[in-house]
Design goal:
By secondary structure, this protein is mainly α. The chain has 4 helices and no strands.
Length: 91
């Protein structure tokens, strides 16, 4: 048994090469399977759905920020304006 192990380990590089080829063949079969394609399509659909929901959320945030900015400008404008007619009447 030990002699058999020694002979195998003498050709360690050849075994690594054969293992790499086997892994590549198995990987190719897995990537070409219909199940893998179905999972990839579902994953892509989920990503695109998340993207569209995120874009909607960002647009809502922008709209709210614009409304707040417009309200703040109006409030500042109201606070800066002085009623001159009321002051002139008092004099």
């Amino acid at each position: 048994m030990q002699e058999w192990k020694d002979k195998i380990f003498e050709h360690k590089h050849a075994l690594i090469f054969v293992g790499g080829v086997a892994a590549a063949l198995v990987g190719k079969k897995i990537l070409e399977s219909q199940t893998t394609k179905d999972y990839a399509a579902r994953g892509m659909a989920t990503v695109l759905n998340c993207k569209s929901e995120l874009e909607e959320s960002i647009q809502d945030i922008k709209d709210n920020a614009e409304d707040i900015h417009t309200d703040a400008k109006a409030a500042k404008k109201d606070s800066v304006c002085v009623d001159i007619t009321a002051e002139e009447v008092e004099e």
